[in-house]
Specification:
membrane; mainly alpha; two-stranded parallel sheet; ABC transporter permease; single chain; about 90 residues
Length: about 90
């Protein structure tokens, strides 16, 4: 009985041209567009490391949170370093 119902459901499906588009063509087209949009997402999002500079003045001396953060980051084995300019 299942095969009988499946056979006639498929016949009805192929008679309706709009259903053929929405069932087969639209998902394929949508998949192609998503593939084109997101195929280089990992290549474009590479981390770019850059150097920073800190001016060692009165305001910097008052902000201990910045001093601790820069010291902690520069102590890591990651390639992070910072420069202090004294005015």
């Amino acid at each position: 009985m299942f095969i009988h119902n499946l056979k006639y459901t498929v016949k009805i499906l192929f008679k309706n041209k709009v259903l053929i588009f929405w069932m087969f063509a639209f998902p394929i087209i949508l998949g192609i567009f998503f593939h084109m949009a997101f195929e280089n997402i990992e290549k474009d999002e590479a981390l770019q490391v850059f150097d920073i500079a800190v001016i060692d003045n009165k305001e910097y001396q008052n902000q201990t949170i910045y001093q601790e953060t820069f010291k902690e980051l520069s102590d890591k084995k990651i390639r992070i370093s910072y420069f202090i300019f004294i005015l």
